[in-house]
Amino acid sequence: MKKNIITAASIIVLAFTACSQSANSAEKSTEGQIYKVADSSRDECLAAPERAAFNTRVLQTELMEAALSCSEHEKYNSFVKKYKKQLMEASKNLQAYFKKVYGPLADAEMNRFVTKMANDTSEVNFTKQKNGYCVYADDKFDKLKNVKPEDLSKFVVTEHFEVTYKTPGCKEAK
């Protein structure tokens, strides 16, 4: 049972990747576009639920990397169980944002975003020489012990993340 949630999460990431590769090649593509999210509190184009959705995805990705690389399966599974409703709501808000910004390309662009975030998180883990990342992730898990499910969105908009992304659809701050 412990590995079922990790396996399910891995399947979802693979499904997102497969969907993005099957997107119609005749449609406009933003391949090579750099996405950044962290500190999206400065992105004035995001409504509060959108900002929380992006940062929730960043948090979930960082903790999934910890589960896979730092053997934190139990902690990750507890996170998913505790915040299941909030994770699903954030996912709906993220999908709605990508639909608003990219229209018919929303699925492909969200899949590209999620895949790039997962890859970048893995790279951060590698550059922190694993142990440093595991300590960082363990700190996140510890902080979450005191966060009620209904307060997750408040937590994610004030929390620092190792992986940073430019929010798709937001203009550069000058």
Structure description:
With 174 residues, the protein is mainly α. The protein has one domain (2-22, 43-158). It is built from seven helices and no strands. The chain has helices at residues 2-21, 48-69, 73-82, 84-102, 106-127, 131-144, 152-158. Helix 2 packs across helix 5 (106-127) and helix 4 (84-102) packs across helix 5. It starts with a helix and ends in a 16-residue tail after the last helix.
Topology:
Elements: H1 2-21, H2 48-69, H3 73-82, H4 84-102, H5 106-127, H6 131-144, H7 152-158
Helix pairs in contact: 1-3, 1-5, 2-3, 2-4, 2-5, 2-6, 2-7, 4-5
**How many discrete structural domains?**
1
Structural class of the secondary structure composition? mainly alpha
User: What are the low-pLDDT stretches, counting only 5+ consecutive residues below 50?
Assistant: 5-43
The global form is globular
What is the radius of gyration?
Answer: 16 Å
The total of beta strands comes to: 0
**Taking all residues together, what is the mean pLDDT?**
76
Distance from first to last alpha carbon = 49 Å
What's the helix-strand series? HHHHHHH
Main sheet: strands, sense, barrel: none
Beta-strand fraction estimate: under 5%
Q: If helices are DSSP runs of H or I spanning 4 or more residues, what is the number of helices? A: 7
Helix content: 55-70%
State the gist of this model.
With 174 residues, the protein is mainly alpha-helical. It has seven helices and no strands.
Quickly list its features.
single chain, 174 residues, 7 helices, 0% strand
